[in-house]
Records
---
Amino acid sequence: MELSEKLVLALPKGRILKEVMPLVNKAGIIPEDDFDDPKSRKLEFDTNIQNLTIIRVRAFDAATFVACGAAHLGVVGNDVLQEFGYSDLYSPLDLDIGHCRLSLAMPESEDSADPREWSHIRVATKYPNMTRDYYAQRGVQAECIKLNGAMELAPKLGLSRRIVDLVSTGGTLKANQLKEVEVLTHITSRLVVNRPAFKTRPSEVSYWIDRFREAISDGTTA
């Protein structure tokens, strides 16, 4: 895909957007007023930087936009990076935001068998690749049922006794009578770059990597 003339920064919607915007602002990027208007239906926003625009997309899609060259930089959780393994994504910075973990959970009412004794596991998850890889390294066969949301319903409705999902505070699990049994990996959000863009526009891309690095060093994330 041919890269656009303007640099495009892909940001994820939701909780991570609130956490990353202080860093974006600290890096010197201020989006137009519509960006903060809840009534606005715009998805692409001008900024105070003449040749830089922001797109606001779903977390999984931010990685796709950057990997395919539709955006040049983006903010993506390393859960997405590990799940999809895009070869055209370069991740130069851990932004130290979006802290959570990918965990195995099951109903509170059930006994927690020792995970080290498992030979087979059936789970509902948004992350089948990560789940299979994690358990394969331990000699466990993971049968994964792919869901894109409402993971906590799977045990309640008999789809699967166990789920693998992102956990932050554990409040959602508790509200659905589930307990965290095992942590597969810890997650943070990263600044990612399109590799071809890094090769063809090295000075521009490197400039913004440095600005974000300085923003992290300043420690102003709230």
Note: Residues 14 and 155 are 26 Å apart (CA to CA).
---
Amino acid sequence: MIDKQVATAADAVADIPDGATLAVGGFGLSGNPMTLIAALHAQGTSDLSIVSNNCGVDDWGLGILLNDKRIRKMTSSYVGENKEFERQFLSGELELELTPQGTLAEKLRAGGSGIGAFYTQTGVGTQVAEGGLPRRYDGHGGIAVASPVKDVRSFDVSGTPRDYVLEEAIVTDFALVHAWKGDRFGNLVFNKAARNFNPLAAMAGRICIVQVEHLVEPGELDADSIHLPGVFVHRIIEVGADIEKRIEKRTVTASDTTEGA
């Protein structure tokens, strides 16, 4: 279908079943597809395995799904700022596959590009490669599920042989993404920091669902300015520019009131 516009967020996520795998865009509180997350929460979907840089905070982003125990597993790079995440993980209620940030980005990009796996230096000589990282605790301080040992090979890329660890690509059932602009064919433009994990998550989802602030007609976007082509997108909804955009940490300095400075 060329015209990928869907009427509502509820319609867009209606067929996401319990137990689905999701790739979700966002970095901290920037670029979270909040309208789609809220619609998924409202329909009661549970037992989700989610790939995202982080899991939001207690009352925002993926945190609203986590608080209602809708998430079975997170594959993430950063797990701070969320006390409920810490509690569920340490109590054995939540599985966590902790992944270096650049590796996570490349795993999503590789999945969307049809690349099954790749070798990287990141993690060599650590538990990322050697295994044993806790993925799920047993609720009594012991480890119920640990990360496996990964294949390590030596490659001479720059004149000096170095070890590289094998990382498998990520492909998910669905992707939830936020973009600044898009057309009805699914071509997307991201704005500043929201161009973080959103394009990569979009690539990795077998079915990619996008919320955009501005939906335009095909041909209105400058072809040279499109960040992600519509071939990766399956459904798109318009949420408007007045959606809430939270700031994770606001830092201010006192005004300089010194006279004559």
Note: Helices lie at 9-13, 34-42, 63-67, 83-91, 101-113, 127-130, 198-204.
---
Amino acid sequence: MKSFIQPAEWEAHDAVWSAWPSAADLWLEDLAPAQAQVGALFKAIADGGKGEALKILANGDDAIVSATKALAGTGAEIIPAGFGDIWLRDTAPIFTRGAGGLQAACFIFNGWGGKYVLEGDDEVAAFVAARADVPAAFNSWVLEGGSIDVDGLGTCLTTRQCLLNPNRNPTLKQTEIENRLRTSLGIEKLIWLGDGLANDHTDGHVDNIARFIAPGVVMCMEPAGADDPNRDALNAIIADLKAATDVTGRKLDVVTVPSPGRVENEDGEIIPASSMNFYIGNTTVVVPLYGSATDDAALKAIEKAFPGRRTVGLMADNVITGGGSFHCITQQQPRV
């Protein structure tokens, strides 16, 4: 029996950790709109006090003031902290649970393979662990929380594009990564998918393409049409998941929702918009929307998958200009 295991996201949380966007040099003209969208996310998770506690890092006096004002009435704890950007799914620790309570698994963060190395991001995991008063377990290899998705029983989804990328752990073979995930997070069975979304600077994070939504049940996206820039990758993911089994040996039940399809920025570049980047809170599933023709259909399909929770769709078109969406911002702290 494993001493610690990473719980599934649908299990009860004591809190969610996130951060307030404030770096004007990173967000440029999208800063104020992104703050509005992130604020709406936090309010939906808090759900008028029925959801979970908000632990929000804020970098600098101006950020503390704006976060406090925007989140008034949510009960959010605004925590002064230094960090590069808000993507705590990847920079914060991954909380695990065992007989002795919680543990914070901290990994090396190298800016998604060296692409975005920002001052302070590599210190977030230790800071959050200490602030949460949870014992930290430090792991001397690179792992981002968005690169894995678990069922809480020992099964994990991931992609070869990310975990086997030489810009992360060039000296580790696949079997070595599997062994380290077993030791660090209690993962006994990895389901390896291929590539993630086009132009995703995370090199194929799985939380953009496939998610466990219940034991033995996985949700992923089907192409929105012939011009979907991820058509081949999404079809391959569906096929791989239908052929896969979980840690108990059962075949996965694969639920599909429509992809946002071709979503472009103002320069005509394809952005990695994903319906899968939702956050599963205690009372609310918050789904990112992008103004796509498939938004409503995706939202209804996700709502059907979570009958015990309310489902809230919120625009994330400004948030994604920073490189991620709602799940990328959040890191849940499980209830003991």
Note: The CA atoms of residues 103 and 244 lie 30 Å apart.
